């Protein structure tokens, strides 16, 4: 009665684990493995080993009573803690050998150890998988050599039984390692594809933003042309027909520009032509960033007044994105912003002395580095960004003034 009651309690506990697994298929499979392992050990211990073609496990009752939980039940954790499962299983087997002299015989031990070996290779890191295999090898050699039996080859004894048992476990371990490597390869490929899509999306979003800004700039200049032409014609000066053509062409171009690029605006965006920020607004931007807790030193060399409006806006956006990244990722830091307007090139450099680690993913407002590179590429320029040797991060952009707009490319 005691044996049957204990077996019932064991299976009841395992079923409870299965219920806790909920809808996660992996946890359900693990619970099933734990139930099967504990059940096979329990049958070999308390039931009729002939039912599973195994040999009886002998030993004192106080040792055999918890044996299914010590040897078989750890399979419940084979995914979440594969190394712990492997070590716990071998600890139970070693304890059984030391106290009762049992060797590795029969289906019960085969199922538990082969499943644990596969799980170790498939779900543990390579370092943990190798560590587990190395730790178990001397225990396997001691038990098999003393018991003169292998896992699946009871007719082999001594050293041959040890070697055969090790090779069997190694085969399942290698199968798990192969599956682990394949899953990792698939995961890395999927992550790489996701990052590529994310970069493409960021570039597309930034191109849309740039197009909206260019639309506002072009629309502003066309509006000025329309007003000047209409005013000249109204004044009654000569060449009225020419001015009328200018006015009509400008009005038509303005209407077509608004119709073509109006779809780029968000539904909740204001329809009016809001002025775009430029280098002149960087002082206000630096002040707002200082108020957020980031000391900023702003230096502007040269005369930015002659910059094309589109370049002026892009310089402001690059500095804005860079400082936002510093606020988000650099921790306690200070930033230096330097803008040089020399000849036909504008150079923007933003550096900080924060704690940004190499390889840290930088993003700001969904754009980040990809968006800044997109802005530089639009003008045929370039942008470089990366950690500084002494700590912190540097963003450096070069925007030519005379090259015109270029086809945008993501680098």
Please give the structural blueprint.
Blueprint: H1 2-20, H2 25-46, H3 61-64, H4 67-71, H5 82-100, H6 106-123, H7 126-147, H8 158-234, H9 240-261, H10 282-291, E1 296-301, H11 309-329, E2 335-342, E3 345-352, H12 368-378, E4 382-387, E5 393-400
Parallel strand pairs: 1-2
Antiparallel strand pairs: 2-3, 3-5, 4-5
Helix pairs in contact: 1-2, 2-6, 5-6, 5-7, 6-8, 7-8, 8-9, 8-11, 8-12, 11-12
Walk me through the structure.
This protein is an alpha+beta fold. It folds into three domains: 2-191, no CATH class; 202-264; 279-400, Histidine kinase-like ATPase, C-terminal domain (Heat Shock Protein 90, 2-Layer Sandwich). 61% of the residues lie in helices and 9% in strands. The chain contains twelve helices and five strands. It has helices spanning 2-20, 25-46, 61-64, 67-71, 82-100, 106-123, 126-147, 158-234, 240-261, 282-291, 309-329, 368-378; strands at 296-301, 335-342, 345-352, 382-387, 393-400. A hairpin with a 5-residue loop joins strand 4 (382-387) and strand 5 (393-400). Helix 6 (106-123) runs parallel beside helix 8 and helix 8 (158-234) crosses helix 12. The longest helix is centred in the middle third of the chain and has 77 residues, at 158-234. The radius of gyration is 36 Å and the shape is elongated.
